[in-house]
């Protein structure tokens, strides 16, 4: 499970450490994985179910997945995959694709760059009405530790509550509510990669809201709206569309709804390997990021679960 492939110099200020790998590290990962695994398209998963997730040459299977559909996938990851002829799956939050919108987590990261700077120190806690905003301004430690703590806190809140908080932060800091530029793929880029036959796309819902915070009607809308958009934009094979739970949050009823909505499988963020009896709507993945996989030895340890 990857998220972003972006140079460390670009990632330093605003990308969570657990969200990216450097392009040179990613290229090394691909070489390493090709030596030890059969890296296969996600659509082939079902055909291997009765083979205990082992290819005919007895090598274990590996499926590369990327959550969120960042523009840097097209810029940095896709050229590496194309050079090595290696397939991958990308899960798209369809409301964000082709827009200049950003996920709230990244908007929050941009705000935290400014908190603590001398020109912002005149803001008093008494002027802050939102209790979580007050906590953010009071929080000690590095920007990274404050960002991680705040994100974990907000993940239990509704989208409306998060947007209210971000609005207050934007007004207090007197900065734009969205970073400059775009974060996500365009539909044209997605179609170009789909036409390469190396990249398969799937759903990461429509709005990327955490499904366990929603009612059933809202969940159904997220699943249906995203699937319909993927089909309309001609980036998927309608007979097999994979799904990834935002933030990995799900329960048995949500998994059943994903199946009922016509998706072919669903990936979680639960760490580990899968076997032929694994529930295809609760598939485990191995989360990969730069800090823990910058060498082949570290990547190997991560894959087998040593850390």
Strand order of the largest sheet: 5-6-7
What ranges have pLDDT less than 50 throughout 5 or more consecutive residues? none
Number of domains: 2
Distance between the termini: 15 Å
Residues in helix, %: 25-40%
Calculate the mean pLDDT score and round it. 90
Q: How would the global form be characterised? A: globular
Provide the gyration radius in Å: 20 Å
Quick summary of this structure?
The chain is built from eleven helices and ten strands.
Structural features:
10 strands, 11 helices, TIM Barrel, alpha/beta, 307 residues, single chain
Structure description:
The relative contact order is 0.15. Helices cover 39% and strands 11% of the residues. Strand 1 (4-5), helix 1 and strand 2 (20-21) form a beta-alpha-beta unit. The chain is α/β, with parallel strands linked by helices and 307 residues long. The two termini are 15 Å apart. The radius of gyration is 20 Å and the shape is globular. The protein folds into two domains: 4-100 and 184-303, TIM Barrel; 104-173, no CATH class. The model has no long low-confidence stretch (mean pLDDT 90). The chain is built from eleven helices and ten strands. It has helices at 8-11, 23-36, 71-84, 104-112, 131-138, 143-154, 159-173, 187-195, 216-232, 252-260, 296-303; strands spanning 4-5, 20-21, 38-39, 61-62, 65-67, 88-92, 199-203, 242-244, 265-271, 283-285. The strands form four sheets. The protein has a three-stranded parallel beta sheet with strand order 5-6-7. Strands 8-9-10 form a three-stranded parallel beta sheet, covered by helices on one side. Strands 1-2 form a two-stranded parallel ribbon.
């Amino acid at each position: 499970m990857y998220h972003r492939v972006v140079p460390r110099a670009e990632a330093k200020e605003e990308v969570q450490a657990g969200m990216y790998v450097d392009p040179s590290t990613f290229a090394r990962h691909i070489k390493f994985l090709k030596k030890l695994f059969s890296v296969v398209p996600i659509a082939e998963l079902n055909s291997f179910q009765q083979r205990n997730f082992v290819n005919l040459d007895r090598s274990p299977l590996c499926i590369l997945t990327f959550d969120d559909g960042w523009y840097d996938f097209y810029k940095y990851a896709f050229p590496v995959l194309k050079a090595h002829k290696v397939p991958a799956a990308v899960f798209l939050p369809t409301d964000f694709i082709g827009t200049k919108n950003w996920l709230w987590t990244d908007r929050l990261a941009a705000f935290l760059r400014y908190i603590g700077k001398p020109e912002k120190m005149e803001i008093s806690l008494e002027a802050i009405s939102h209790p979580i905003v007050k906590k953010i301004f009071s929080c000690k430690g590095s920007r990274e530790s404050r960002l991680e703590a705040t994100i974990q806190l907000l993940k239990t809140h509704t989208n409306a509550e998060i947007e209210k908080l971000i609005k207050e932060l934007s007004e207090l800091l007197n900065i734009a509510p969205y970073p400059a530029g775009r974060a996500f793929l365009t539909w044209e880029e997605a179609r170009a990669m789909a036409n390469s036959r190396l990249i398969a796309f799937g759903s990461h819902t429509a709005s990327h809201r955490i499904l366990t915070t929603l009612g059933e009607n809202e969940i159904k809308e997220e699943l249906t709206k995203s699937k319909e958009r993927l089909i309309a934009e001609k980036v998927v094979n309608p007979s097999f569309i994979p799904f990834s739970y935002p933030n990995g949050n799900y329960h048995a009823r949500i998994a059943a709804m994903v199946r009922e909505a016509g998706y072919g499988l669903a990936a979680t963020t639960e760490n580990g390997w899968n076997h032929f009896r694994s529930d295809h709507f609760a598939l485990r993945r191995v989360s990969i990021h730069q800090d823990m996989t910058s060498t082949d030895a570290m990547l190997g340890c991560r894959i087998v679960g040593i850390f």
